[in-house]
Amino acid sequence: MQKKLFLSVKIFVFNLLILQFHSALAIPTTSLEDWAFNIDGVVSENFFGDPLPTTGSLVDGLGTLSLSLTGGGARNVIGFFDFEIFEDFNTFFNESGAATGTLAVGQSWEIDEPGFVFGDIYDNTLLGSLDNSNGVTAGFEDDVAFALGWDFVLLDDDVATIDYIFTDILPTADFFLTQTDPDLGESIYFYSVLDVVSTGDPVDVPEPPVLLLMFLKNKLLFRSRADSFLEV
User: Fold this and answer.
1) Is residue 122 part of a domain?
2) Which of 43, 64, 57, 54 is nearest to 126 (CA)?
3) What is the CA radius of gyration of the chain?
């Protein structure tokens, strides 16, 4: 019992020293190791050196990435991300994932090992279909990757904007994913927002003077027809 307690104290002290060392050197705790996007079957992969198809940027692995889509029809978009928390100090395979909340209409998700050992999340991203499951739950820690997808339909004059948000602050979103390093108690949160706006031209409504002229014209025409009928 004393041996176990002593070992726990040593681990706690070691982790505390790591945190202090990290703070002193300003080393980011979170880093994006890999990513991939599947946009209507067109795949962009970090592995092959493709540019991110998004705007925005991440600082120390946190921030917002956005992309916009136009053109009518059914659309399918998946973003895959493999983050590491404090990889240089306590490895990358000691983490777990969790899903919280209620999915929006057309939304899908997956948490899994990236595919080096047993996960199929990367393959599912390339195929354009996530399985709404968590393969790296608490108690079965490993390397964690997560993905969020959207299936929706655009009209010809619609513009869709999809935001991918990564934060270390617990979000209030209806649905989000969590990646946790239980040894350090550090977590990052991932959620996505879809916004569709129509850019169609509004229906022209005649101004009041035009409406008045149209009314007077119709009234005079009706009266003229009525007079002609009485004269017959």
Assistant:
1) yes
2) 43
3) 28
**Domain-embedded: residue 10:** no
Q: Report the largest interatomic distance among the alpha carbons of the chain, rounded to a whole angstrom.
A: 120
Helix (H) or strand (E) holding 62: strand 62-70
List per-residue pLDDT tens for the chain, 232 residues long.
Answer: 444 444 444 444 445 444 444 443 344 588 999 999 999 999 999 999 999 999 999 999 999 999 999 999 999 999 999 999 987 778 888 999 999 999 999 999 999 999 999 999 999 999 999 999 999 999 999 999 999 999 999 999 999 999 999 999 999 999 999 999 998 889 999 999 999 999 985 444 445 554 444 544 555 444 444 444 344 4
Containing structural domain, residue 166: 30-198
Do residues 166 and 59 lie in contact, with contact meaning Cβ atoms separated by under 8 Å? no
Distances (CA, A) of 200 to 67, 68, 156, 194, 232: 20, 17, 9, 19, 52
Question: Token pair of 103, please?
Answer: 């999915």
**Structurally, how many domains does the chain consist of?**
1
User: Per the domain annotation, does 151 fall within a domain?
Assistant: yes
- Dihedral, 103, 171, 116, 89 alpha carbons, nearest 10: -170
Using CA atoms, how far apart are residues 109 and 149, in angstroms rounded to an integer? Answer: 6
At residue 43, what is the residue type? V
224 within a domain of the structure (yes/no): no
Rounded CA-CA distance 4/192 in Å is 43
**What are the Cα distances from residue 43, in Å, to 40, 85, 195?**
8, 26, 22
- How many angstroms separate the CA atoms of 111 and 121, rounded? 7
